[in-house]
Specification:
Number of helices of chain A: 7
Subunit structure (chains A, B): Homodimer.
Protein name (chains A, B): NAD-dependent glucose-6-phosphate dehydrogenase
Shape of chain A: globular
CATH superfamily of chain A: NAD(P)-binding Rossmann-like Domain
Structural class of chain A: alpha/beta
Largest interface: A-B, 27 and 27 residues
Strand content of chain A: 15-25%
Order of helices and strands of chain A: EHEEHEHEHEEHEHEH
Helix content of chain A: 25-40%
Number of domains of chain A: 1
Keywords (chains A, B): Carbohydrate metabolism, Glucose metabolism, NAD, Oxidoreductase
Enzyme class (chains A, B): oxidoreductase
Function (chains A, B): Catalyzes the NAD-dependent oxidation of glucose 6-phosphate to 6-phosphogluconolactone.
Strand order of the largest sheet of chain A: 3-2-1-4-5-6-9
CATH architecture of chain A: 3-Layer(aba) Sandwich
Oligomer: homodimer
Chain lengths: 262, 262
């Protein structure tokens, strides 16, 4: 039997996309700060072990990580206008606690949910809206120094720094996914930026599945679908992770779309 | 009369190098967590206004920043083996408080003491000790993604992220100086790494003087002397700041060296 995967923030939007997409591909432990409502536990993970804990609680994290193969760390304050106090505690301190507990528990791999807001200020007045359009070849590729668009973005970029440190110091495999605009059924309408960084639910689930299966050391990749409009390169995700997205915001049809079922 | 410059962490090693080198070049306000001992207030800054405050104290910082031209932000836990709890509070939260107070006070410029430990894990087993030697052309130039060597380094790199954000969001001029190995009188003996990243006291003072006078937007530069051995480029500091170091660890003579007087 494969070792389980711990999913922090299991009740959040990204966690739900993952569980609904690849719930039966791994043996999950689901951790959230609040007990998960029944509708947040899809049938395919009905047997998962449930943990209720704050990610700043080192002892609880160590317990939850015992004998796990990998951690998918999503927990944190997801609000782009979150206060400094909140992101300092929930996102920065929480992520350090996750990495430190992983070292203690001997976890080999962590996939970390970073955000497009870690690099949001690359979208300067000079570059926009041109960079959102298909005839513009401006690309961020994950090697650039972050330019956070808000304090939430600062906290997400700090999580990447922590990932880099824990990889270099302890050899844990770490992948940071700068998640774009995740929506359940269809890409944002009449919002060029959102279409350029759209990530469908099924591509999101597939991408994190690749994060759990591929071989890598430390990576920062962009988590978007294969949109015609894009200013994030997905080359690295394709090459290193074997990411093979199926969706494209330009090809969305608003009726009978299969993504509604994901 | 020129507006004053606020120096946080005035009693620390970098602060003392700055005050002893360029104390009479600016009108200083000196802030430290503890009252400065008399021997930490050089004659040339005997008239400086003194502030005793923790850098996590927003109200105290706002008061200290009233009508200042610029802030040189050095305060923080300087220990490379400092605990996460300490660097989270003193370095990360403290630096965010400094930037936030600067916005409130209308400060236009902040020079921030980052560290070589923000990028210490570039010194891999494969690259060392070759990268410390003069026949090796490996260089970091300040554009690279950080690779912190410890949690102190994570905190220093997070300060850079905060600087990037506060520059992009509020237009404050920010320069981050990744300070090398600062020693008072002579470079470290028989320590190749320390010689490669040596920063003399007088070059340190001159570099921060340039940070207070030059025109820039957001910069990350390396703070080292013009050592023959080097793996940090000082090209950017020369070009943008007009940094013109006078010292070189290879040229040090151990007797009667003028640096002892700086």
């Amino acid at each position: 039997m494969a070792q389980p995967v711990l999913l922090t923030g299991a009740g959040g939007r990204v966690g739900q996309a993952i569980l609904r997409g690849i719930g039966d591909e791994h043996d999950w432990r689901l951790l959230d700060r609040e007990p998960l409502a029944a509708d947040r536990i899809p049938d395919r993970v009905a047997d998962a072990d449930l943990y209720v804990a704050d990610v700043t609680d080192m002892d609880a994290l160590r317990d939850a990580m015992e004998d796990v193969e990998a951690v998918v760390h999503l927990a944190g304050d997801p609000r782009t206008d979150a206060s400094w106090e909140s992101v300092l505690r929930n996102n920065i301190d929480g992520t350090q606690t996750v990495f430190e507990a992983a070292v203690d528990a001997g976890v080999d791999r962590i996939a970390y949910a970073s955000s497009n807001h870690a690099v949001g200020h690359y979208e300067t007045d000079e570059r926009t809206p041109g960079m959102y359009r298909t005839d513009d070849d401006y690309r961020l590729d994950g090697t650039e120094f972050p330019r956070p668009s808000n304090l939430y973005g600062v906290s997400k970029a700090t999580g990447e720094l922590l990932g880099r440190y824990y990889h270099d110091e302890y050899g844990i495999d770490v992948v940071c996914v700068r998640i774009g605009n995740l929506t359940r059924s269809h890409p944002p309408r009449e919002y060029e930026r959102g279409q350029a960084m759209w990530l469908s639910h099924r591509d999101c689930a597939h991408l994190f599945d690749r994060c759990l299966r591929a071989d890598y050391d430390f990576e920062i990749v962009y988590g978007i679908s294969d949109n015609d409009r894009k200013y994030y390169s997905i080359d690295r995700a394709r090459e290193v992770l074997g990411y093979n997205p199926r969706d494209n915001s330009a090809q969305y049809t608003f009726e009978g779309d299969p993504r509604d079922d994901v």
